[in-house]
Amino acid sequence: MPKITYNTHNNNTHTIDVQNGLTVMEGAIQNDIPGIDADCGGGMSCATCHVYVNDEWLDKLPLKEDGEEDMLDMAFEPKKNSRLSCQLIVSDALDGLVVNIPSKQG
Amino acid sequence: MIKTDVLIIGAGPTGLFCAHQLGIIGLTCEIVDNLDKAGGQCIELYPDKPIYDIPAIPECTGEELTNNLLKQIKPFNINFHLNQRVEELKKVNDRWHVKTNGGKEFDVASIVIAGGVGSFEPRKFPAKECEKFEGNSLFYSVKDKTIFKDKTISIFGGGDSALDWAIELSNKSKVNLIHRRDGFSGMEASVQKVKELNEQGKINLYTKYQMESVSGENKIDTVKIKHDEGELKEIKSDYILGFFGLIMQLGPILDWGLNINKKTIEVNTENFETNIDGVFAIGDICSYPGKLKLILSGFHEGALAARGCFKYAKPDEKLRFEFTTTSKATHERLGIKK
Questions:
Q1: For B264, nearest residue in chain A (alpha carbons)
Q2: For the domain B2-121+247-333, what is the CATH superfamily, name and number?
Q3: DSSP classification of residue B23
Q4: Is B67's Cβ below 8 Å from some Cβ in A?
């Protein structure tokens, strides 16, 4: 199973095996990783599953759909490496992905 | 004090359908919601987006679903109390007394919390010092636009609210519009209008900038913004407006002594009652083994919670199961004339 690493804002690191086909957001929720709220449940409608992706991964991820960038406008402290974790579907290609969770979701 | 059988907290699809189910079994209810209209997330988050998993409705938008639910409960003449957030809950003998932040008071036999993921509140600026100016020179909504006349306003955001206010205020004020990227999520016509006004010098547009800090004595005087590449700019501003949409907060519900688990309320699956007798929770806000956050699950939960409310509202009566197709009592309640 692909391993996804979640760094929380207070420097805790959680490396989790996440099943192919789940989203990076679901991997966090199912494993009780704090800091990802996902209020809308994965509908790209709330921007509370916002993460910062490590730079070396930025170009390897699937491109953002239109709505994702619009939602990121609403996120707490969005940056160039911001993504919504509900839009990142785990596959073997994402094995080793590192995401950083912001201090707040809103 | 408003006396009724049940108070429903939340006017989303789940709350609306629960009101229908209460009406069908002959109970009265009133509905409170923090937003200014019914519909909950369907209206606030995705009014135009299609929904494909409402039974027997192959496709509808959030707005259509809401309008149909409102039509379905029309025969019951239910009162809505909008722009009201429930604050206090108090047990008085066998009844509950509930107070809202707008000063409304209810005396009810039971309560159904259909609060979704909480009440919607504006998203705020990350910079800490913004709090100090909130309500005097920094706002997340516009209540009185006359205060902005002949002043300098810095507006942050890229959605319709930010664009619309930038256009509107540029008539009588000096407007800076600051957004984190070149693209906007607002309507294309508004984006074009803002760009025109920028060319005419009526709006100063700063894209790829975000707020770094604000400063001032009692009121805001200067806002510092930072470019993607790190360059800093200081802009004189009398007022700051931030439009970053809404976020959901559980708020005072957290203090009611309910069993809360990951921002949701634990319930049984027989009638969706919480650990507090007479307080039910349905829809996205409730949790139980196997919970699915779907609108259709909320409908089921609302139907059972409504029946659960019956014994509190009419302790001396027995609820008889009936079908709406054949029940005379139901037809009367629905105002159907044969």
A1: A39
A2: FAD/NAD(P)-binding domain (3.50.50.60)
A3: H
A4: no
